[in-house]
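Fig. S4 source data, part A: sequence.
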Amino acid sequence: MAPGSPSASSAAPTLSLVETACIVCGAADATVEASGYDFEYHTVPDRFSFVRCNRCGHVYLNPRPSGADLGIIYPSNYYAFAGTRQPLVRWMQRRWEARKVALYRELVGDGRRRILDVGCGNGRFLSLLRDFGAPEWELVGIDFDESAVTQCRDLGFEAYRSRMEDFDAERGTFDGVIMLQLIEHVEDPARIAERVFALLKPGGVFVVETPNLAGLDYAMFRRSWWGHYHFPRHWNLFSTAALHRLLRDKGFEIARSEYLISTSSWTISLHNYFLDRGYPDWFVRFFHYQNPLLLGFFVVFDSLRARLGLQTSNQRVIARRPG
């Protein structure tokens, strides 16, 4: 067992691992690409592997946890549920994401628009949409975590406890669907894309942000420690070409595609590397994804790379349902 791996014990939870095929092309022939542990939350002691499809090149976790394991692999202190503790990080995050809302306002338009945030967590991004979006927007969130949905409702939002695959909403009723760092977590992204397509009105916008199988951090840490592996919570990792193919296959038109900064990937990759190599705890803790010093440095670093036309390990794709 590696120095930084979770320690095995008789009390360790057991996962119902599922063998799966490539969700992009359906092939079951794949080669191991990377392997590692849950370096971040230590929920289980298992070692996991990402494999690369030998037919189309898509990368996916195999075997992976089952849907029944979500309560194990997403602990109560998971970052999407707990929020950001550092005031400076909250300020930086709010400024950066307010710029996203300006883009969505341009895409979706002002006036009465119905927008769905998939994987809404504790309502942080719904709050940004309310603060910086059009006042007439009707904002809806869904999440599988009951506590997160309760927090959203306490903030005054319409929110539902559901997986996207099971979300019971009328077809063709949303002007925009936003999925930020979520499609990589789901069992069947193709089915998700079909469901989003059905929920959107003609001309409606689907905004996806997800890790990109590229960037300098990916090249440096791809063997085991890359932050976007996020073992065992990320189940599908897309290149830009693979994501475009998936969306087009489900009827979408690609309106725009771009590379984004990936600050947390850098810090988590370094954390995972030093943890796995057995460095002292005090040193490993320095590489926390909310460390404002590291975040500030990598914001500048990745921004410069993106301006030079280089790929980063984070991407945004904007797709439309044809009108």
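Fig. S4 source data, part B ends here. The first strand starts at residue 30 and ends at 36.
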